Amino acid sequence: MWEHKLADALLEAGTDAGAYVPDARLRKVVSRLAEQLPLRCLTREEECVAYACGHAAAGGRPVVLMQCSGLGNALNAIGSLLIPYRIGVPLVISMRGTLGEGNPSQVPMGRATVPILNALGVQTFSVRDAAAAEGVAKGIARLAYDARSPAAAILEPELGSQRDAA
Question: Which member of 11, 21, 50, 80 has the greatest number of CB atoms within 10 A?
């Protein structure tokens, strides 16, 4: 199960807390992480980034999980906290608005997510199949925690539809 491999890789990397906004594709990742560490279910993505920044400032190793449609909410926190202060936080982002999307309101952020993150200097790594989940999770955790550079795992639709994930 790719969700468990991704979560376990984050745990092995020393992740000790996290924050998320609920999302169907992330549900099993969140459940697996919650078995071993405190997770905060918050209402907005910028709150997740702010929580992670505070936890990292206190010496912790947080992760943030969100759907790409909420990235717009988090941009100021990413651009004004994570980037300039070199706070390394891995981001796990579930994609909508791309391959096979039927909801037109999801398409703009789906199209813009990777270019926006790249423009801010956040490296992105696509996870298109289950075999890649563990390696990408290990890689973004190392970039974040050791190199103090936020990095994002982009969970692509090929991993399963939102309906499949529910």
Answer: 21
